[in-house]
Write a structure and sequence with these properties.
The protein is α/β, with parallel strands linked by helices. It folds into 2 domains: 140 residues, Rossmann fold, CATH 3.40.50.280; 264 residues, TIM Barrel (Alpha-Beta Barrel), CATH 3.20.20.70. 41% of the residues lie in helices and 16% in strands. It has 15 helices and 14 strands. The protein has a 6-stranded mixed beta sheet with strand order 2-1-3-4-5-6, with helices on both faces. A 6-stranded parallel beta sheet has the order 7-10-11-12-13-14. It has a two-stranded antiparallel sheet with strand order 8-9. The chain starts with a strand and ends with a helix. The relative contact order is 0.08.
Amino acid sequence: MRVLFIEVDTESSWAVASIGPSFLAAYLRQHGHHVDFFRVPLTMDAAAVAAKVREHAPALIAVSLTTRQWQRARKLVSAVRQHVDIPVVAGGLHPTFSPEAVLAQPGFDYVCLGEGEAPLLDLVEALAAGRSPEGIDNIWVDGGTRPALRQPLSPIDELPFLARDLLDEPNGTVHMATQRGCPFPCTYCAARMYNQLYKSTEEYGRRRSHRNVLDELHGLRDVGKLGYVIFLDDTFTIHHPWVREFCRIYRDEIAVPFCLHARVETVNEKLLHTLAEAGCQQITYGVESGSERIRYEVMRRPVKNQRFVDVFRWTREAGINVTANYMLGLPEETPDDLQQTLDLAEQLDVLDFGYFVFYPYPGTQLFNVCKQHGYLPDDYLYRDANHRESILDLPTLSADDIAHYYDAFTELRRRMYEKRQAEIAHIYERASTG
C-alpha cells in the first residue's frame, strides 16, 4: 500500500522535518509498504497540495502534528479533502493529547495515539485488505470510541534506522535520537505526559544500545553523509554510565563533531570534559526562568540559579559552546520574575539563546492549570501557537509586560552579538600587528 506523509511548514522551510514520520516510514517500508513524502511550504495553497497528492496517488495520507502546526494543518487538510477523497490519519503530540478536537475537524479520519509504528502498520494493512480499522489499538476512528493502548515497543533497537529521505538533511548534518521518554516532571513539557499516557507500564523511557546507534552512524559515514551529528534527545545526559561508554566508543569509531541537549542537573565537570573529548562542540541548556520561585513552584524544576552559572562556566572551560533557552509569560509570573530571567540571561552571557513566549500545550500540567483558572480564551483551539505573543489572560502579567520583555531579550541578544564581534575584531587586530 502507498502512504504519503505530509510535513506542514509553519514558519521556516529550512527547518528539519518532524523526526516521527521518519521512524514510521522506515517501519512501513520494512514491512513491504511504499512511502512518499513532501513538505508544504508557506507559499503552497490547498489546490497545489491536492495536485501533489494526486501525483503521488496514495491510499492514505499521514500527518504528524505539533500544536504549532495544528492551525495551518487543520485548514489545509479540510480544504485538500474537498479536492481528493483519500483518508487522513494524524499522529504526534497534538493529536495524541487533543484527539477529540482533531477528529472533530473535517478531513481527519483517524488519530493515532502515542507511539505509532505498530498501530500505523495495522491501520495500513487493514485498509489494504478492505477491513474496518475499528478496534485497532492506538487508532481512534472518527465516530468511534477511544481505543486501548498497546505496550510501547521494547527494546527500541528492533526499530529500523530512520528513513532519512523524509528529513531534508543538508551537507552531511544528520539528526539522531537515542532514546524515548523523559523522567523529569516539568509542567510545561508534554514529553513527560507520555509516561501518564502509558501509565500501565513501569517506565516509558527506553534507550538504544551503543552498538545500535553507532551502526546507524557507521552506515551514514559509509555513504558519505556524516559530517556533523545533532542528537535530538530531550536530555542526552540522563544516564552517565551510558553516556561515558558511548563517548569512548564514539571517539574511537566515529569522531565527527556533534551537539546535544542537556539539563544542568544532569552534568558535572568531568562528564563535560568527556563529552568534549568525544567531539561535542555545542550544548543547549533549558534555563526557562531566572526566577527560582517560578522554577520551583510553577515549572517543577528544583534547581538554583547558581547551578546554571557553574555549569555554563564548566561547559565553556571544557571547550564546548553554550546555547540557552528562556520562556516568558508563564502562569503566576510577574514583571519582577521576568526581570530576574533577563538578569540571569545577561549574567550567563551566551552568544546565542532562544526566548519564547509560553504556550500551554495540550497534555501538559500547565495546560490544565490554565484551563482550570480560566486563563485560556474560549477559542484557544483556533488560536495560533506562536512564541512571540501570549494567548493567555494572566492576572499577574499584561500583554504589554510580555511584549516589553520580549523586546528586552531581543536587545540583549543584539548587544551580546555586537560584543562578540568587537572581541573577534580585537583579536584579529592584535594578530595583524604582531
